[in-house]
Design goal:
264 residues; alpha+beta; HIT family, subunit A; 11-stranded mixed β-sheet; 11 strands; 26% helix; 21% strand; globular; transmembrane; CDP-diacylglyc_Pase
Length: 264
């Protein structure tokens, strides 16, 4: 990610340095947004919201053009944005202010179905790659609150690593609702199969209702990928780990392949 490097001659005061950093950060975000793809620096955890809430939403509402986002869906309450990181990586971001996986706003009845929207956004990955990924080649991922740089919920939409797709093959025909443990990329995960990505099968709700009372959603990471060649028949796999799980992790993003080697 972009980081501000110290110049040989630093500003004469901390206040002046902070002003310079803020100005540079704003200019970087603006420049990247103009390209239609955004990579945000960790010095502004609200940068992603500033792009979506302050640019994409008003542009779509007032001008009929969602730029720098690829699309803004007011009815479903999310935007899709090309991330500068990765060959074909997109982000699904709520058009409401939603902090992340720990937010209660993702669990109430009738809350937006972000996972279904993220899966549908896989078409933008296909368009970028000029090929159609199979369901087992497409992955969606969200990080725990401790493993993210942005305080706005965002689901990564990108290619799966080939070796991880192969490692998940034994779980593709599991009975829905049952969890089994797996070791993926050296970390401990559990895997279940669902037949939809909405309502009770919304992965946020699937994970939340399976947690013990002492466990928190804030520490969880979730990855979703197709369970087989036809999601209408095979459904999806929900892959879950946690920051505070022994041998676990708060990020499953490493199970994705931002280079999309499978498309080469």
């Amino acid at each position: 990610m972009f980081r501000i490097r110290h110049a040989a001659a630093a500003p004469s005061s901390p206040r002046r340095y902070a002003s310079l950093a803020a100005a540079l950060g704003a200019s970087l975000i603006a420049a990247l947004a103009a390209t239609g793809c955004v990579r945000l620096s960790t010095f502004d955890p609200n940068g992603l919201w500033k792009v979506v809430g302050e640019q994409c939403v008003p542009n779509a509402r007032d001008k009929g053009q969602p730029g720098p986002c690829t699309t803004v869906d007011f009815q479903k309450r999310y935007a899709v944005l090309k991330d500068i990181s990765g060959r074909a990586q997109y982000l699904l971001i709520p058009t409401d202010r939603v902090s992340g996986i720990e937010s209660p706003d993702i669990l109430y009845g009738g809350s937006p179905e972000y996972w279904a929207g993220a899966w549908a956004a896989g078409r933008y990955v296909n368009d970028k790659l000029k090929m159609t990924l199979t369901p087992t080649q497409l992955g969606l991922e969200i990080n725990s609150s401790q493993q993210r740089s942005q305080n706005q919920l965002h689901i990564h939409v990108d290619c799966m690593r080939n070796d991880i797709a192969d490692a998940l093959a034994p779980y593709r025909h599991d009975a829905p609702g049952s969890w089994r443990w797996a070791t993926l990329d050296g970390k401990r995960y559990r895997v279940t199969r669902v037949t939809s990505l909405t309502d009770r099968d919304n992965p946020f709700r699937v994970v939340e209702r399976s947690l013990d009372p002492q466990q928190a959603m804030a520490t969880q990471t979730i990855l979703v990928t197709g369970a087989g060649a036809d999601t209408a028949h095979d459904g999806w796999l929900v892959v879950n780990s946690a920051q505070d799980l022994d041998g676990g992790t708060g990020t499953a993003e490493g199970l994705l392949d931002h280079s999309c080697a499978l498309a080469r």
